[in-house]
Design brief:
Elements lengths: L1 H11 L2 H8 L8 H23 L11
Length: 64
């Protein structure tokens, strides 16, 4: 089912828009800014995973 929806989406997208998204060109961001943004995203995802697993004790304990 997912593959069929993905195929429909791929065929429905305008080719010009797909080309622009694949090669965005100059965005005005330098490499350090992109690295910092990616790093902070990974820190947030890591912290959320640790919080869900119960390693941070930030959320109320649920009875198991």
């Amino acid at each position: 089912m997912f593959s069929a929806l993905l195929l429909v989406t791929m065929l429905a997208v305008d080719p010009g828009l797909a080309q622009e998204r694949a090669n965005p060109g100059a965005t005005g961001q330098d490499a350090n800014e992109r690295f910092g943004t990616g790093f902070l995203f990974l820190v947030a995802v890591g912290f959320a995973g640790m919080d869900v697993a119960g390693y941070t004790n930030r959320t109320p304990c649920r009875s198991r």
